[in-house]
Automatic annotation (TrEMBL):
Presence of the UniProt keyword Cell membrane in the record: no
All copies of domain HTH marR-type, residue ranges: 1-89
Pfam families: MarR_2
PANTHER family named in the record: HTH-TYPE TRANSCRIPTIONAL REPRESSOR YETL, TRANSCRIPTIONAL REGULATOR, MARR FAMILY
Species, as recorded: Sulfitobacter dubius
The protein's name: HTH marR-type domain-containing protein
Entry keywords, A to Z: DNA-binding, Plasmid, Transcription, Transcription regulation
Amino acid sequence: MTLSDVAKVLRVETATLSALAVRLERDGLLVREPSPKDKRAMLLHLTPRARELGEQAEKITQSELSKLTKDVADTDRKRMVELLQGILKNLDDNPP
């Protein structure tokens, strides 16, 4: 993916993500390479170490979410997800 593609997915400004990409590359978590389709664009690739850290973060996140919602009924959890998805859609349709 290009930097602008990732920025759209993360709902952040390209400049914000660009600064983060520089730090991630410096720390060995990201590799940037020129796009063969667009000479102006750079493709971003996570390193194996970054993927490993992402998997660890996902496990921690799931564990913490399970703790937070352990006493919430499944139907309420599903409704909460629907509500949050609606909020994200509204943000996409009407950015601040």
